[in-house]
Amino acid sequence: MKILLVGEYSRLHNSLKEGLTKNGHEVTIVGNGDVFKKYPVDIDIDGSLVKNNFVLNKIRHLIFKITSIDIASLESYIKFKKNKNSLSNYDFVQLINETPFNIGQYFEKKLLAFLFQNNKNVFLLACGDDFRFISYLLSGKFPYSTLTPLLKDRSLKKQYEHTLKFVSEKQKKIHNYVFSNIKGVIPASVEYKVAYKNTSKVLPLIPNPVNTDSIKVIPFVKDKKVKILHGINTSNYLKKGNKYFEDALTIIKKKYPNKIELITTKNLPYNEYIKHFVAADIILDQAQAHDQGYNALEGMAMGKVVFTGAGDNFRKHYDLKEVVAIDTSPDSIKIAQDLERLILKTDLIREIGENARKFIQKEHHYINIATKYIEIWKSNS
């Protein structure tokens, strides 16, 4: 079958493509590579000519300030239209998000309209920020979330300006437009399953695909310093809870300076970040989530200990008895205690890492997940 995957976050669609291709399907990814992360896409519509030219980018920001029009989005629109013959008549199309191109509502809707008009079976992933999910987080129904800092301190509204755009009236219109044209929405994690419960067109959760064939297990080596990676994306600093990790690491560095090696990165492209990722024993991923993002899943697939969302909802969904990741809440003292336990009893690092790899193989294997997507697309077309 011929399948179009629209947009890319954290290599999710690339891994799905690999699984679908293994199952004999023809797959194309269109998108912008998720900005600075530069994930591979087959049809690249990023407004890179404007963004990467110093003068044009300065003009871009000036025009946007005066008119709210982003000429980089116009470039994306032009690139998309040039490829329109390659974006029609697919058996199945999947949007990674209700705004998969992230180019502003005006151009976004134009591109979505083309896809809906020229493809019959379009599905949506509940993944990333969207109207329904952010609305649910703002309700405060989770004990904590990426929006907890804002709910506790409304003075942070400026820092959450981008996130809050997803509950604007303009975004609500896009949301309603997308839902009126899709065949169904597939939650990509337990958090989205909870937020989308009883929503029109919601389908069963399908876990993120992970290509374990291309991810080698890196066994933990005892009797050396424990390497801890704290990768920071500054645009998500508050949402990921990086401050809790930083405070915990301050405690740990003071207590065990000769037992740990700390690696801190900021805003690295995927190809550079993954080198540090591979070298680490412990990955500090998120402190305010209830499930794992894609980076966490990759780390677990390598047999690493990942600090991330792995609480009650997650354990119940997968009926887990063993620890596959360190459930992490916005509590620096608890994070420090969990790190200390691993540093002092390094056999746990190996044990949890082995559990993590087995879990990914069982629940996230890319070929099995690709089969689940085909089954759910077919049964809802």
Walk me through this protein's architecture.
Residues 255-374 form the Spore protein YkvP/CgeB glycosyl transferase-like domain. The chain has 2 domains: 2-45 and 83-209 and 366-379, Rossmann fold; 226-363, 3-Layer(aba) Sandwich (Rossmann fold), CATH 3.40.50. It is 46% helix and 13% strand. It is built from 18 helices and 11 strands. It has helices at 12-22, 48-51, 54-67, 71-82, 105-118, 131-138, 148-152, 161-164, 169-179, 190-195, 237-240, 242-255, 270-279, 294-301, 312-318, 332-344, 347-363, 366-379; strands spanning 2-6, 26-31, 43-44, 92-95, 122-126, 184-187, 226-232, 260-266, 282-284, 305-308, 326-327. The strands form 2 sheets. The chain has a 6-stranded parallel β-sheet with strand order 3-2-1-4-5-6. Strand 4 (92-95), helix 5 (105-118) and strand 5 (122-126) form a beta-alpha-beta unit. The longest helix has 17 residues, at 347-363. It starts with a strand and ends with a helix.
